[in-house]
Amino acid sequence: MPIIAISSPKGGVGKTTAATIFATILAESGAPVIVIDADPNRNVVSWAQRPGVPANLTVLPAEKEDTIVAQIDAAQEKASFVIIDLEGVASLMVSYAISLADFVVIPVQGSPLDAEQAARQVRLIRGQERIAGRAIPFAVLFTRANPAIQPRAQRFIEERFAEANVPMFAAKLYEREAFRYIFAYGGTVAGLKDKHVSNVPAAVANAHAITGELLGRLRNGNKPVEEAA
Question: Which residue has the higher pLDDT, 89 or 66?
């Protein structure tokens, strides 16, 4: 059962939003999902206390550093997918979770500072690969992207990542009102259709696109989905 870690050493890059979207789309498809909320702000835990959470989606607060491995192992026995929303710092808990992960998603906004922090995260993953003695597949996911235009800074960052052979999601998590409002209303993006939130169908399509690519990358490791054999 795949363990998916959502991790970046920088706060405010969309880790919690990405984790919640992945979890709800997978749960809506019928898969049992457990989210371990390892962010001290406990935003996913707060979201789960509102109405509309899929019945097959469970959110748990992370335990202590010395018990997180056992908590992840226990969750893996109960769910088809385990998603870990990690705190935005370098810590033992982050290292433990990455060492167990089948895939690591690194959310990053299109700014040089975010790109620098994402590069730090890649180095951390490479270090955990040496310790674990195995490859840990990962990819950068651009978040809060503009659906209409690609700013020059983001284009520059994508080019540098490509030159460094850093895997990147082809799909981006766009800046959508619906992705903010699920934390106000609760539930899923699709559940906002009667809440007078703008562009819900576009947000649903975007959520399915990034989740579909995640599933493809789980099958293919660091290779882009289109290279699947």
Answer: 66
